[in-house]
Amino acid sequence: MSADIDHRQETGVGTVDAVVIGAGPNGLTAAAALADAGWDVVVLEEQPTPGGAVRSAELHPGFIADLFSAFHPLAAASPAFRALDLESHGLRWCRSAAAFGHPDGPEDDDAVVVRPDPADTAADLERRCAGDGRSWLALVEQWERVRTPFLHALLRPFPPVAGAASLVRALGTGETVRFARMLALPVLRMSEELFGGSSARLLMLGNAMHADAPPDAPGSGVMGYVLTMLAQDVGFPAPAGGAGALTDALVRRGESAGARVLCGQKVTRIEVERGRAVAVQTASGERIRIRRAVLADVSAPALYGQLLPSDAVSDRIRSDLRGFQWDTPVVKVNYALDRPVPWRSRSLAGTGTVHVGADSRAMVRWVADLETGVVPESPFMLVGQMTATDPSRSPAGTESCWAYTHLPRGITDNNSADLLAERVDTQLEAYAPGFEQSIVGRTVQRPHDLEAADANLVGGAVNGGTAQIHQQLFLRPLPGFGGPRTPVDGLFLASAGAHPGGGVHGMCGWNAARAALEDMKPTGGLRRGLHGLTRRLLT
Known about the structure:
- It is globular, with a radius of gyration of 23 Å.
- The model has no long low-confidence stretch (mean pLDDT about 95).
- The chain has helices at about 25-35, 75, 80-85, 120-130, 130-155, 160-170, 175-185, 185-195, 200-210, 220-235, 245-255, 300-305, 315-320, 360-370, 385-390, 415-430, 445-455, 505-520, 525-539, and strands spanning about 15-20, 40-45, 55-60, 65, 95, 100, 110-115, 240, 260-265, 265-275, 275-280, 285-295, 330-335, 350-355, 380-385, 400-405, 440-445, 490-495.
- The strands form four sheets. Strands 1, 2, 9, 10, 11, 12 and 18 form a seven-stranded mixed sheet that branches. Strands 7-6-14-15-16-13-17 form a seven-stranded mixed sheet, sandwiched between helices. Strands 3-4 form a two-stranded antiparallel sheet.
- With about 550 residues, the protein is α/β, with parallel strands linked by helices.
- It contains 19 helices and 18 strands.
């Protein structure tokens, strides 16, 4: 955190228009949006510093590590962050020479990468497989046409009526139907239909694995398509000075509008009277009364299972919660290196993100390990080269980097995490001979470490719940509650547990704030009535 931001543990707040529970990117975004509308807003954060899963620290002297998220293409494209104008509050983005790359096995000395200029990326793909360069440029041209309406449809509350209508205007009815079919494809099939060569296919496959949908599952291609096109569009940027700089900018933005961010304040209960949220209680015994709304940047199970009184949650919702599925646990290894990563492929030297450990066949085997409870022998992983992206992260000639991968669902013990971390070291040595000898500092973040630092990362799950189709759109987090509204009036789910889900984009908080503001308009009663009718039908 920057030294000029003071988050004293104040008490005696009394009564406010709104309480935001949690100072992650979604909570801070929600607070700024409400404060802009003239609301008296206080953010209560359990941890001693704000940020949630967007924080950085010096884990080894002179080396700045991003503790959770690091590269932020969704943030760079976020309508919420753009509206908040975070650059005017100190945020500065850094970009690497190439957004990301994906070697086709440890012996690949000519790994494919995405360059800033689409023509350069296309020329490289054309060199590898005739026709793939033209296909890449056609895909980029399509993205340029659909970008604004598609992101509107993807990130705004469900159903995306306005975004869908704009898509039809941009593409025409026939092409919109074909586009929708493409998005429904498994990433394996999508990449095969779009490209003839393995290199171009790997670009989409690796990005699809940022989520936890298997590569042969319907809809897994969405993440592959979005991240690949964003890489060519805005790159994979990182905040200058560390991920915490993004949090700093969000805090400054909210405070400039009058919001207060109070840390070391754990909310233990939301009080409900006559079906409406009226107050919150903290672990220190403070009771803060609410005039208008509570926005909870917490997990869905925590909201319904811990914070709300039992009589505010129906048996139907409790039953649905038993079907809530977390995404797979993360193990993250942070490295301080005395030199740049010695990749076998020189093309990866200036690349921010590298997808390591799997071609299409190996990726399917890796997912099978995760689904069958086997700690992968040869893990697929994301590698972030932070100094290559932002030279301020470590001394000249060195590298601050990290790798993260997944344990099987439900396996979160430290022994399994340490075993997987050792296999990460081995995998990196295979792709970059001499890597292990360059390590001067190494820190492993196990699933329980991640959860201890951010209660939303339950069991090391970083996405707020699975990204598979059965828990997306109008099914996220529960059937019929595909958005920020909850069964309690004046209470909104503002975390990645709500649509549109995981990723650092602030839209879950933004959507929750917009819903809270809409409910206070003269037409808000009608909106609440329609929501209540839906709630009664579903519960």
